[in-house]
Amino acid sequence: MKRSLRHRCETRLRQLALPDVVTSMVDVVDHVERLRERPVRLRPLSLPPGGPTGAWVATSVLDYVFYERDTSPRHQAQIIAHELGHMTSGHHSSPAAVLAPLLLAPGAATVMLAREAYATDEEREAEQMADLLVAYVEASMERAPALSALEAALKRDSRRL
Ligand SMILES: [Zn+2]
User: Fold this and answer.
1) Each residue's pLDDT tens digit, 63-85
2) If residue 8 lies in a helix (H) or strand (E), which one and from where to where?
3) Distance from residue 87's CA to the centre of ligand 1 (Å)
4) Ligand 1: distance of its center to the CA of 77 in Å?
């Protein structure tokens, strides 16, 4: 069961056909925007403790990804990747009705975001996608210097031709 979820998510990651070089989760967001042909707006928020640390809200024309402002960049990347996981797995977003309280009074949004607590299959799938996306970005960042050196070498060669 666990393996099949991971396998399904790995297949989906390949289908996303991410660029070889991504330097941050924002590059992944850009890519998902192009794939879905919908803008994705990243919005940091101070969310109440004990509640969800992120949310995806789709409107008719774009997607909002809210993420906890007061946490580490690594955790923020994981939160954003989790919401991208929902998006790319064909899950439904939180209803747009949560948008107003999120923007006006984040504390009031806790109950409306309770979806996170019950849709456990979707949560596991989104979290598996998040782990894969974070690992992809980290691996790409490690590869980046080597790729740059290779590209520089190729450019030198092409100039010689
Ligand atoms: Zn979730």
Assistant:
1) 999 999 999 999 999 999 999 99
2) helix 2-16
3) 10
4) 14
Task: Give the position of tokens 């396998």.
Answer: 7
The stretch 38-58 carries a mean pLDDT of 87
Q: What is the enclosing helix (H) or strand (E) of 132?
A: helix 120-160
Two structure tokens written together for 40: 């994705």
Please give the distance, rounded to the nearest whole angstrom, from the Cα atom of residue 47 to the centre of ligand 1.
15
Q: Read off the pLDDT of residues 10-42 as tens digits, 9 standing for 90 and up.
A: 999 999 999 998 989 999 999 999 999 999 999
Query: Taking Cα atoms as reference points, which of 99, 56, 50, 57 lies closest to residue 81?
Result: 56
- HSE value, Cβ hemisphere, 13 Å, CA-based, for 10: 6
Interval between CA 86 and ligand 1 midpoint (Å) = 7
At 103 the pLDDT is 66
Domain layout of the chain by residue ranges:
2-160
Cα gap 92→101, rounded to integer Å: 19
Q: Report DSSP letters for 14-37, one per residue.
A: HHHT--S---SHHHHHHHHHHHHT
Using an 8 Å Cβ cutoff, are 149 and 29 in contact?
Answer: no
What is the 22 CA–ligand 1 centroid distance (Å)?
23
